[in-house]
Amino acid sequence: MIRLLLFTGFLLFTFCQSNPSQSAFRDEQQRFPRVRTAYERTWSGWRLRLAAHGIDPDQPELFIRAFKVGRSLEVWARTRTTATPFVLVRTFYLAGTSGTLGPKHREGDRQVPEGFYQVDRFNPSSLYHLSLGLNYPNASDLRQSDSQHPGGDIFIHGSNATVGCLPITDAGIEELYVLAVEARAAGQDTIGMHIFPFPLTPENLAARRHSAHAAFWQNLRAGYLFFEQNHQLPQLATDARGAYTVR
Questions:
Q1: Which partner for 74 in 40, 65, 70, 187 could form a disulfide, CB atoms 3.0-4.6 Å apart?
Q2: What is the CATH number of the domain that holds 97?
Q3: Catalytic residue positions?
């Protein structure tokens, strides 16, 4: 399966590793030919794009948001040393999909998760070119999904194939991977990622009010709405039932 194959040749480059300096993370990543090539192809363009949005290219802070309907993956950024709102700097098309609308509940259900996640792994040796791993299952998933086999190994990666991941083509993952490395090297320990079925507007929710997932989507709405209104990330918690709350 793709989720398992993504671990082939995988080295544990995580946010938790103890590098002597932040820039050492970038240096270590650039030991890999694919990452060096990705830098050569994309970093000069990223610097121009970030500067055009008023973002210091040497201090980027990222947030990623994806929607299943419309198959989009948005990259938002700001200068890390500021508290200014995030701005949308790039949108990628999801080159492949699997499953249906609704959360992931168990291993093998082919579902792309829905909820509030973090990028917690960098894989420069992915079978799907490059990949960024998500912390699925999170605390909410562990309470609401199959207790023994909730699944895992959810990545943003290259190619256009998927059984529950988010592929954005090889060219797309080169761009995103490089920017994520730069954010990590600049000191961003956590890159947030929110995954939604569709924009959680009253109209969209009303149109799907009879879905078995309607209550779950209503629970996601507070976090969605906070970002929509403020372009700042909400402070989230999970209650004993696995429901999200915005602090």
A1: 65
A2: 2.40.440.10
A3: 157, 165
